[in-house]
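The data are quoted verbatim here:
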Amino acid sequence: MLLQRIYDEDLAHASYLIGCQAKGQAVVVDPRRDIDEYLALAAHHGMEIVAVTETHIHADYLSGTRELAAATGATTYLSGDGDEDWQYGFEGERLHDGESFQIGNIVIQARHTPGHTPEHLAFLITDGAFTDEPGYLLSGDFVFSGDLGRPDLLDEAAGGVDTRFIGAKQLFASLRDVFLALPDHVQVFPAHGAGSACGKALGALPSTTVGYERKFAWWGKYLAANDEQGFIDELLEGQPDAHAYFGRMKRQNKQGPAILGYPLAQLTNVENGKLAEQIIADEVIFVDTRSQDEVHAGTVAGSVNVPGVEKSASYGAWVYDPEAENTPLVLLSEDEAEANEFRAHLIRVGIDTVAGFTTDLNGLPMVTPEMIEPAELEGYPRALLLDVRNKTEYAEGHIPGAQQLSGGRVLWNLDQLPDEGTIVTYCQSGVRNSVAASALRRKGYEVIELEDSYLGWTAYQNQR
């Protein structure tokens, strides 16, 4: 049996290719929407992808299940469990608790594990060429290394009301009745790692075991004592902000993401003279992919800052809402290969409007973002001091008088901002601040960024 983890550092997301080498067949679990890596991996191992499935309706990225099935002809398997409000809206064979399908000698059994979402499935994997007992669990967003999937996302991202309490109770039952009923040796492969917003304290280890989590995870003592309320209280406390685009991901993943069709067309290297005209006419949005320091020295008028390929999906979804506009995007990239990689990251969050790229800024209309030093902040005339960090960071310490609104929620909560006057913004070190500030400037707000953000302000206070 082949079990290959495909990890995306941008979204801290893990998908899996499981293959039967004897039969040359494979299944992909929780694929992302840019599918080239799965196709290449299967070809490398001489396997045909005959099935594709997912553990649940994801909130943090757009699923590639439909895309991969369309490209390969694979059978789609989807959860048929959960309440009627969270049933998939596209075709696929429905799996219920205890049901299985087979890939060559490998048996994949679905176990209904609600809590993070009502329809959530975990997959028990049995290598039939070796044993008749399961040895692996693909846990999705149910159990992570050292943590659990948060049960509040339906409230935070999908318009639910107090569903977190029902979800927390379901998680307790899923742990008791499914996870802890497994032998300690079963290896657990989660769908996310450290940095994901689908939990509050995910570990960076790529896998764990049932026995290790039973003994060392924070929740183990509550299950051992059958203390449901203690479990719920600790689980719900301190969950981070959910990015606003999570709501869009939930809706699109439930109904079925649009199929792009692979291979994708190559991107065009746009001539800067034409590009300058398009920028001035507001016919395109320029994406400045440089660091905040480079952007602060001068950037393209009306541009948004999405620094580097590594976090382009996350930050891209902060500054561009494809449900609100469909203006084409033009990327600043070193070359065509980097532009294609950048586009792949944006496709993962449903941003499909990348139209081209340029390799330099020559001849483009330039502006210099306004900055303010920490020493100038006190008494500076402003309509709002805006902290774009996570609410948990804000609670640990913030600049007096600041209002918190995380960068991933800014564009969807403009009613919380003043209609007139200057907004001074900051984050922890300046990266997120540059991203959020660029989005607000594009919307017409007068924004001044705090130099070196909160770290710069605290250093200044310590020197006084």
Remarks:
- The chain has 16 helices and 26 strands.
- The mean pLDDT is 95.
- The chain has three domains: 2-255, 268-367, 371-463.
- The CA atoms of residues 77 and 93 lie 5 Å apart.
